Amino acid sequence: MGKVALIIIYNHKFDKNIDIVENLYKNRFSEIYHLVPFYDGDKSNVIPVYENSHYFQGYVAQGFKSYFKEKYEHYFFIGDDLILNPQINENNYTEHLKLNNSTCFLPGFIYLHDKKSLWGRVQDAFKYNINLSGVEIKNELPTYDDAVSSFKKLGLEVKPVSFDLIHKKPNSIFSFAKKVIRDKTYIFKYLINKNYNLPYPMVGSYSDIFVVSADSIRLFTHYCGVFAATNLFVEIGLPTAMVLSAKKIITEKELQFQGKALWPDGYARMDGSSEYAKDDYKELEKFNYSLKELIEKFPENYLYLHPIKLSKWNTQL
Fold it and tell me: Considering only CA atoms, which of 85, 96, 105, 71 is closest in space to residue 28?
């Protein structure tokens, strides 16, 4: 039996995809679980979860007691619309991802204070309310200073965020006027471009694939639950939870494989760059939207392809 659990995260109740995904990975991973919102079926390895998909780190927390086993060395999470390189399996994943028993994996970090990034979720971090009404988490997270220490131990920076990252610069006189109407002090804030400390140390990351070590999983899932309960967007809440709980985190820049995210023209990339996708998604046309053909011709240097919307594909293998 495998020493790693492969856990598939479904953003929505796509029950029809469960068997398709199971068949895709069952010959590579012997221990598979599915986290499916509002699942009411009878499959023993499908775990029902109840959370907004914008905070799907909550799925990870809610399902913990159902997928946790002492024998597992790692918990390998992927989205149901992410296709993992067919070379990777339960026997070689640690080699490909350069993991040991005490290391975790994330695709990479996005610094919220990085002015090279125009990531729209910086505002979510700025507006995060750690004292959200109805949720008592004061004693559920490390203190601010202890969190900063965790960041520094992993070589990560914690810096103030500038006003123009929190509120994107208006692209026309009309949008500028609207901002001024909504906030009479906007002009003053815009001109001085003041820096603001976030309410808690946070970092971003692409979060549709991640691996958590056995010695981090309990704290990681706890922090994931806390950030979900306080409505922190998943691609901030999940990586921050990992930083607070992991001893070491491997990222794609240290690997031979690199992940490939495919977005329609005009969508912002999730790699922290300011570039926009230019028909990335058209790359899939060469596989004729056949899952069998994609697996057979999967690009060797890609760690994964995402997103693959299975409802639009021929899923016969």
Answer: 85
